[in-house]
Amino acid sequence: MSIENHSEPDHESPIEIIDDTNDMHSGPEPSHPSAASAANTPAGDKTMAMLCHLLSFCLFILPAFGNIIGPLILWLVKREQDPFVDDTGKEVLNFQISVTIYGLICFLLVFAFGLGVILGMILSVAMVVYTIIGAVKASEGVLYRYPCTIRFLK
């Protein structure tokens, strides 16, 4: 809390140091993303990882595979820049592909036994709940492993 009270004076000193470091390393900085300051990198990592989970809700905007397309785009853009986002993206994609397969099975079970309607509702609720849990864990910097997931990407 004392850091918050003195955030401006303390914050100015690290910014100057970071700015001096960035000026010195303006060329090689992209090749050393892990060498960035600890204060800036984890927050970006956590935010992008959380966004990767939350982009699964694109399913409600783009019903046909929106839950896969949203995280896939972010993962393809950020996977080489950050190992945490890479692992999170793979996990999210594995889960969303698995949910899509389970959803197709539920759809087929609707015609066979009518059981698919109940299973589909349970699957939908589970997808939303697990996605929110994954986003919260990612915001804490923890890699969340979804249950009942087929590991297509390793």
From TrEMBL:
Membrane-topology annotation of the record: Multi-pass membrane protein
Keyword annotations: Membrane, Transmembrane, Transmembrane helix
Transmembrane regions: 54-77, 97-130
Biased composition (Basic and acidic residues): 1-14
Cross-referenced InterPro entries: MamF_MmsF
Residue spans of biased composition, Low complexity class: 27-41
Region (Disordered): 1-41
Subcellular location per the Swiss-Prot or TrEMBL entry: Membrane
Protein name as it appears in the record: DUF4870 domain-containing protein
